[in-house]
Amino acid sequence: MENEELNILFDQAFEDAFKIPKESVPPNVQLVLYGLYKHATSSRPSNNNYVQDASQDANDLKNAFKMNAWLQVKNLTTDEAKQEYVDLINKLLKERNL
Question: The whole model's pTM is what?
Answer without folding.
Answer: 0.81
